[in-house]
Enoyl-[acyl-carrier-protein] reductase, mitochondrial (Vanilla planifolia), 746 residues
Amino acid sequence: MGASRVAVRSYGTLRRCVSPRALPLQFARNIRTFAAAAVSPPSKAVVYEQHGSPDQIVSIVDLPPEEIKVNDVCVRMLASPINPSDINRMEGVYPVRPQVPAVAGYEGVGEVHSLGSGVCNLAVGDWVIPSPPSFGTWQTYIVKEETSWHKIRKDIPMEYAATVTVNPLTALRMLEDFVELTSGDSIVQNGATSIVGQCIIQLARIKGISNINVIRDRPGSEEVKEKLKKLGADAVYTESQLSVKNVKSVLSEIPEPLLGFNCIGGDSASLVLRLLRQGGTMLTYGGMAKKPVIVSTSSFIFKDLTLRGFWLQKWMTTDKAKDCRTMIDYLLSLVQCGKLKYEMEMVPFTDFNLALDKALGKLGSKPKQIIKF
Amino acid sequence: MGASRVAVRSYGTLRRCVSPRALPLQFARNIRTFAAAAVSPPSKAVVYEQHGSPDQIVSIVDLPPEEIKVNDVCVRMLASPINPSDINRMEGVYPVRPQVPAVAGYEGVGEVHSLGSGVCNLAVGDWVIPSPPSFGTWQTYIVKEETSWHKIRKDIPMEYAATVTVNPLTALRMLEDFVELTSGDSIVQNGATSIVGQCIIQLARIKGISNINVIRDRPGSEEVKEKLKKLGADAVYTESQLSVKNVKSVLSEIPEPLLGFNCIGGDSASLVLRLLRQGGTMLTYGGMAKKPVIVSTSSFIFKDLTLRGFWLQKWMTTDKAKDCRTMIDYLLSLVQCGKLKYEMEMVPFTDFNLALDKALGKLGSKPKQIIKF
């Protein structure tokens, strides 16, 4: 929380007398306040002052330098993704979100730029991520306490470091924390082309778990199937392929899945429910179709299904999250040895508006957009 | 399973050559088969030969005497309820059901009529219930092994003994086995006028758990509210009373419930979901409205709800059921001391067709129908 709080606070103070776009003019006065202290460079940030459609409300603003206190670390941000939850926070529909005005973004990676005199375990040039993730990562410089940063390996592409927390960790926890799966079991998921979906395929494969994947009926679905199979998918079906009376007949040799993942809702969630084994569990972690999950009475009583949800931001506040840095290191080690990969598109910060339009789906289906600062 | 299996088997054998209604004519020949053995009296039974609308398919048939083997007990049935699940089994829509032709019924109480020579722990005149419950209780005499019968107290009305397993035990297990509730917590349920509903109110009260009850909008709902409050309901609302934006504002001093029970489905299930606390659980054990449960994505992700089902017939096959006779004794002790009661209507076996019509809802809303043999 530190970075965004500090950044937004100083912005909040300043905006009493100036409009955001006039901020640079205030630098001199502002820096005088910190005359005796080390300060960060000014930060260029994606800021929103009210909730609404992201492309209508964000502006890129120069924030004044921040004081670097004795235990603080100033980080030059390298890259940060545009996740659907970032968009929901800007829209104001996310239940936990920063107060406006706010700097957007929730995860990312940066390089240590300068240190307070009490910092022992980080050095200039180290790669770090905010861990747990925190608001306000879409900016060029962030100052927060040493303990807020987790040092990570540098031998991986920065876009993986920037995205390791929200999506891969969601996939890992959903696979580990709800149903005991052992080699030979299987899982089923919709939205298999999402980053979480791609991670589930690969993490399941590592555990010896077969995976059944459902994708939407779209032009190019044969290509998508091939891509997912290359990642390790055991079976990929379009929704229409599964619109048959005896849906389980399509599974052939794959055992009926014990665990299902739903990030779509509506009919697509119903397909996951139909494919699940007696006594199975479906986890909902997204609702891309903006339609509810519909469950028959007999699914509960006779099929004994359990339906639950997963939300990483909530998980981060629980005891289980105390080992999250170890989990991050594990996921990055998989990236390093080529066992975890997913499609992303790096976009320079100067093209932020284009990246945002792509993330908003205005230009059709695009890979995950990663802002490169 | 013993009684119904034996009864249906002999009926099944006979029906190769005679129609059910001709069975009495075959007694002499049949009894000759068992010449050297003790036999039960002939049994008058509610039999169906195919699945369909119960009032179209059942007939009352005289079944021939059964052999009473050394460890068998012959029980003269006293009373047996018509439960919704009995109707579903006759309709053929229940996933586990006896093969046709079958004697209907699943629970009931009887009096020991005669014993095999190896029976040690039961005596003529004892009251017994089939435990676990088993198919084929709608008949006047049942023969099964001693171990299939559970001797119960005789100082309670027979209609409670006849009905203690399916509904009160469902209420008890749902309250005990899913969420840890302690005094001061609360639960919410729809279908509060059902027998399970009435039991939940009283069992919750005994545990110091507040209970919030939802009933349908029907003429006489004020009277229903008073009845349920007399049983121990803390709050009773009609569905329309809860159709307000801020549903939780109606709860006033009752804490938000951790656990909810749904036996209706559709909008009524949605009300239970809305009333549940963050992290709450809803158990579905019925679907009287024949409409599915509809759940928003955010209920799973942000409200962290868990949805599950409960089915007593499945539970009876699990390890947990090994103590079911102790639970039955506990429930009957509550009946004896006036802490567990619910509305029933006793109907003589000669009026079976009327009782069935009432149970099928043909004569409006009626209390649980109990056949008195």
Q: What stands out?
A: Chain B touches chain A through 29 residues (CB under 8 Å). Residues 171-313 of chain B form a domain with the Rossmann fold fold (CATH 3.40.50.720). The two ends of chain B are 20 Å apart (CA to CA).
